[in-house]
Design brief:
By secondary structure, this protein is of the alpha/beta class. Helix content is about 30%, strand content about 20%. It has a single domain, classed as 3-Layer(aba) Sandwich (Rossmann fold), CATH 3.40.50.880. The chain is built from seven helices and 13 strands.
Length: about 260
């Protein structure tokens, strides 16, 4: 049987009457289909109604997705967001307890962009709310371009920690990444270690050593895994961890 991969959803208003819906980008679904060989399972942003215990009994891995919304600042002791900043309390109510339980239970996690920030907050860290407002920081936010290829193009280099998990995966200590975020890690959670940083010192990748596989990246590997070797390897490594969790035979990483 194929492994079940949970994909975190956001609660968004759709249609002419603004009805609440649960949504995740097709890029994550396609990554599960094409790279992981699993069955994508969309996890609704239903807050306290989520049955975390049942989810973790059934799921073989979890992808925490990117989103325009930001983690509620009261969850990490931060000041209120600027007016108009999107939040999603229903998603926070699912993902943060899910992360803590998944790390404890050893369920593989791949945390991307907002998911990367959720991983840090769930384990006790805090966030900068607008990196571009901080002295000495570059603007990490999404380029306002109609072309998806332009928006998700490589934006800056990252320096990978020598000897780290990401270094072993990449084989080099510097790679270019895309950049589509405003927020970033301020105080690193005690349960995380740094795997890579941007030129301005912004943390770009982390790992939770307490779990067999709990990796967070600030960029979006789901957008270029078809043409970027490291992006593809990240998903393939996650797939290996998922197969181990599911008790399925391991597969070798695909050749470049």
């Amino acid at each position: 049987m194929k492994p079940l991969i949970g994909i975190s959803c956001c609660r968004k208003l759709f249609g002419p009457f603004g009805m609440p819906n649960h949504a995740a980008s097709d890029t994550y679904v396609r990554a599960v289909d094409q790279l992981i060989g699993g069955v994508p399972v969309l996890l609704p942003a239903n807050g306290g109604a989520a049955d975390i215990h049942t989810l973790l009994r059934r799921l073989d891995g979890i992808i925490l997705t990117g989103s325009r919304s930001n983690v509620q600042p009261e969850l990490y002791g931060g000041p209120p967001h600027a007016e108009g900043t999107p939040e999603d309390e229903f998603r926070d109510g699912v993902t943060l307890p899910l992360i803590r339980a998944a790390v404890h239970e050893g369920v593989p996690i791949l945390a991307i962009c907002r998911g990367f920030q959720e991983l840090n907050v769930a384990l006790g860290g805090s966030l900068h709310q607008r990196l571009q407002d901080l002295p000495g920081r570059i603007d990490h936010s999404t380029p306002m371009q109609p072309s998806a290829r332009v928006r998700t193009a490589k934006a800056h280099m990252i320096a990978i920690t020598p000897g780290s998990w990401l270094h072993r995966l990449a084989g080099v200590v510097q790679v270019p990444v895309n950049s589509l975020h405003n927020q970033g890690i301020d105080r690193l959670a005690a349960g995380l270690i740094v795997e890579a940083v941007a030129p301005d010192g912004t943390i770009e990748a982390v790992r939770a050593p307490a779990s067999p596989f709990a990796i967070g990246v600030q960029w979006h590997p789901e957008n270029d895994h078809d043409r970027d070797p490291l992006s593809r390897r990240i998903f393939e490594a996650f797939a290996e961890a998922v197969r181990v969790r599911a008790g399925a035979p391991a597969m070798a990483l695909a050749a470049d």
